[in-house]
Amino acid sequence: MLGNIVIVLFDGFAFGMLLFVLSVGLSVTLGLMNFINLAHGAFGMLGGYVTVTVMRHLGFPFLLALPMAFIAAAMVSVVFERTLFRRLYRAGELNQVLFTIGLVFVAAAVATYLFGTAQQPIILPSWLRGSIEIAGMRFGVYRIFLIAISLAIVALLVFGIERTRLGAQIRAAVDNQRVAQGLGLDVERVFAITFALGSGLAGLGGALAIEIVGLDPAFGFHFLVYVLIVVSVGGLGSITGSFVGAALLGIGDVAGKYFVPEIGSFLIYVLLVAILLIRPTGLFGRR
Amino acid sequence: MTNLSPAATTSPHDWMKRQSRWSPVEILFWLATLLPFFLFPTYLTLASQIAIAALFAISVDLILGYAGIVTLGHAMFFGLGAYTAALLSLRMGWGEPITALIMAGAVAGAVGFVTSFLIVRVQHLALIMVTLGLGLLTYELANSLTWLTGGTDGLRLPRTWPVLNYFRFDLWGYTAYGFSLAVLFVAFLVSRRIVNSSFGLSLRGIRENVKRMPAIGSEYRWHLQKIYTISAVLAGMAGGLLTQTTSTVALDVLSFQRSADVVVMLILGGTGRLYGAILGALIYFIARDQLAGVNPQYWYFGIGLLLMVVVLFMPKGILGGLASLMGRKA
Amino acid sequence: MASDSSVLSTRDVRNSFGSLQVARDVTIDLPRGARHALIGPNGAGKTTLINLITGQLKPDAGQITLDGEDITRIGTAGRVRRGLTRTFQINTLFPALTPIEAVTLAISEREGFAGQFWRGLASQREAIDEAHDILQRLGLGEAATRETRTLSYGQQRLLEIALALATKPKVLLLDEPAAGVPKDESAMLFGVVAALPEDISVLFIEHDMNIVFSFATRIIVLVAGGVLLEATPDVVRTDPRVREVYLGNAHHG
Fold first, then answer.
1. B116 reaches C (C-beta below 8 A)
2. How far is B183 from B103, CA to CA, in rounded Å?
3. What angle is formed at CA A239 by the lines to CA A39 and CA B136, rounded to 5 degrees?
4. Against a cut of 0.80, is the pTM above it?
5. What is the ipTM metric for this complex?
6. pLDDT tens digits for range C23-70
7. Quick check: helix, strand or coil at residue C43?
8. Domain spans of chain A?
9. Which of A44, A160, B147, C135 lies at 20 to 30 Å from B52 by C-alpha?
10. Torsion sign, CA atoms C23, C27, C30, C36
């Protein structure tokens, strides 16, 4: 029984880390520019399909495909941000929600057209397959890899935010955009870079997700709700918040489906509503 | 005062009256809703679906277009109404349409009133997420209570009793459309009254600048709770109508898809106008009928593209775009 | 300064944002018919004090009394209904509503029929008449049926005041009413302020010293969240501490 709990926690935490990588970009850009980008998940899908394509048609190894997913998603997101999204920054929440949902629809249709509706499998390198045994319990190697990569990303992000000049600029712009602009900060540039980084991470998340949850054109929709929960519960503009929110959701989701499959999802949504009523800006949100 | 041009001599009273006057186009429109009986009798079932969707869309327009509450979970009330009507028929053997419809609205309204206390405590993203969460948890709950709701299989019901003991629900949909249209029209009249009253003005005030409301002495949260409850009643009635006209009910009446679809309809048609809700429902169903029939992917692509175009170039929806074109006050 | 003749008074109101104290034991009294000005350098906490008085901000300590009633625990809307109204430094209007609608809305909230949904708005004739009247007195009669966002900035500032007047206030707090308004229009604006009924008590924040010395009967000087001085214009004008705060240098003439 204890073994089951440990495995469930482990699997849940790994899933949570995946959610973190998928969501952290949205949390920061929401906190930065208040732009509700529901197409964030579509960038994840893009990363996934890029990975599948370069591995299958260009023969790239998995580890090389990952940064490609990141770069592809980052570049495409910049194009969208510069041409389309920036026109909607003052358009109000509803319009942003609907525009980006429209984008997800279009992305899903395009993906179906190019790749069909079937799940896209990939073949992991042999050293990422299988499981290791520790203290009589079997832990999946890939999940360990996921956790390791995610923690590395957390460390990089925290270091980047706290120690680099760009990080300081991001923090300033998140804190008080008008004042930051008044002090000469090129807020537009900061946002474009942050948006690219965040979407790139989503792409990376999509690539990492293939092995855990699969990849099909509905990816953008499936993960929409998860990502939104992480971001709103964790708190906008907070890396710590995304981390905690993602971990909680990941563990809660896996544990719920394992221990109380009938009402697992129900409990998650009840918790979501309860947390938001008590702390509307999220666990680590400001204001 | 110096010479005033004719335009400036409109007294405020006249101006106010003009805002709520019935225009000839409106009257024509409602007359045109009778056309399907004569011109498209094979499409009456589709027409009643559109009428039901329009009613649902109006219920959302009241809170979204007029009060500014963005909701992604209103199917909750639609579904509650649908299941209420279904259970009344199946478990209590009560198939009288008008009273069942009132019950459906009442149940949805009661839940709406309770949840309205939660709704007014949050704004922005938290509000969207709370509505989303409430909708999703209702779906999950219904999914689990299979003994009550029939789970994923849904429920099959005996045919609804004749309306006013006379109009039988026939296979061609004459009664279905007639009944749905009648309910839509009555609900529209009620909504129109609300929107053109001082209450409607306070709702617009909340939408335009909620910060200013307390500063003019408004306990605006009560206003919000009131309209949210009314909206829930109407949504519940729409759901009940669906059950009554199709004699079935399934979980999709509570789905996120349905909540999202109705918001899409509103954006297409234009929020804050009531007629935008009806137009949006019309466009959505016709587009879906045409595009999805060919290929479901075309539907997703088409509706996605349409959404993006409307938001970018016609943020007031198609109705708003038309109004601007004709030079009327948007 | 007998406190029983004052309509609005604050006692030792204190507020901090973290370690920054924005209000230090602020104690002021506003008598009936007052025409008091609140001045001070930028960042002194003037708007914050208004926010505290109107209930938009909760004080950490202290008491606020209106007409003898302790309103410290009452919310903003409640204070407005008891006669305490403010205008905003930055226009806080209803962009898509017309002035006649906005002012009628304020009146309907005041009279308590804002929640009525069965009677048409057009049938509230008295409210519309009163709204039109207020707008005409402020020179907005012709713009009354245009959307607020189409009005000029000066007209919008006047609408700010119109909305406040529609609540029939006993105490009116004006936060820089002429801010950003061109000189010729601000004269009209302050003409309106000067013509306000005598029994209304007015406290206004203002930076333009000419206006302050023309209209104010008493001046409160706020510095770093605390009241430095509260006296007649002549006393304030010649007080060395005030000159130091504004000119930054007490040693040069």
1. no
2. 14
3. 50
4. yes
5. 0.90
6. 888 999 999 988 999 999 888 889 999 999 999 999 999 999 999 899
7. coil
8. 21-219
9. B147
10. negative
